[in-house]
Amino acid sequence: MEWYRVVETDNYGGDYPNEKFATPYMLRKDEAHQIADLFNKLRCDRRYWKVVKDGYQLAPGFEP
Predict the structure, then answer these.
(1) Which residues constitute the domain of residue 41?
(2) pTM score of the predicted model
Protein backbone atom coordinates (compact mmCIF):
# COMPACT_ATOMS: atom_id res chain seq x y z
CA MET A 1 0.00 0.00 0.00
CA GLU A 2 1.23 3.47 -0.83
CA TRP A 3 1.09 6.18 1.83
CA TYR A 4 0.41 9.88 1.41
CA ARG A 5 0.69 13.12 3.35
CA VAL A 6 -0.88 16.56 3.11
CA VAL A 7 1.52 19.45 2.50
CA GLU A 8 0.85 23.15 3.04
CA THR A 9 2.48 25.19 0.28
CA ASP A 10 2.44 28.59 -1.43
CA ASN A 11 -0.73 29.20 -3.44
CA TYR A 12 1.17 31.31 -5.99
CA GLY A 13 3.75 28.71 -7.07
CA GLY A 14 6.69 30.78 -5.87
CA ASP A 15 10.31 29.65 -5.82
CA TYR A 16 10.42 29.49 -2.00
CA PRO A 17 7.05 28.09 -0.87
CA ASN A 18 8.16 27.28 2.71
CA GLU A 19 6.26 23.98 2.69
CA LYS A 20 5.18 22.15 5.85
CA PHE A 21 3.52 18.81 6.45
CA ALA A 22 -0.08 19.44 7.56
CA THR A 23 -0.53 15.90 8.88
CA PRO A 24 1.98 14.34 11.30
CA TYR A 25 1.42 10.84 9.94
CA MET A 26 0.86 9.05 6.66
CA LEU A 27 -2.61 8.40 5.27
CA ARG A 28 -4.33 6.40 2.59
CA LYS A 29 -4.75 8.41 -0.61
CA ASP A 30 -8.50 8.93 -0.19
CA GLU A 31 -8.06 10.14 3.41
CA ALA A 32 -5.32 12.58 2.40
CA HIS A 33 -7.48 14.03 -0.37
CA GLN A 34 -10.42 14.49 2.00
CA ILE A 35 -8.23 16.43 4.43
CA ALA A 36 -6.60 18.56 1.70
CA ASP A 37 -10.00 19.33 0.16
CA LEU A 38 -11.36 20.44 3.54
CA PHE A 39 -8.32 22.63 4.26
CA ASN A 40 -8.60 24.22 0.79
CA LYS A 41 -12.28 25.02 1.33
CA LEU A 42 -11.35 26.83 4.55
CA ARG A 43 -8.07 28.24 3.21
CA CYS A 44 -6.56 31.65 3.25
CA ASP A 45 -5.56 33.16 -0.09
CA ARG A 46 -1.81 32.73 0.27
CA ARG A 47 -1.61 29.01 1.16
CA TYR A 48 -2.73 25.78 -0.50
CA TRP A 49 -2.81 22.14 0.65
CA LYS A 50 -1.83 19.30 -1.67
CA VAL A 51 -1.46 15.53 -1.44
CA VAL A 52 1.98 13.99 -1.94
CA LYS A 53 3.41 10.48 -1.77
CA ASP A 54 5.43 9.36 1.23
CA GLY A 55 9.07 10.39 0.77
CA TYR A 56 8.23 13.84 -0.63
CA GLN A 57 10.92 16.44 0.07
CA LEU A 58 9.58 19.76 1.36
CA ALA A 59 10.58 22.90 -0.54
CA PRO A 60 12.23 25.47 1.76
CA GLY A 61 11.25 29.05 2.37
CA PHE A 62 13.30 32.10 1.43
CA GLU A 63 16.34 32.63 3.65
CA PRO A 64 18.03 36.04 3.41
Answers:
(1) 1-7+9-15+25-48
(2) 0.86
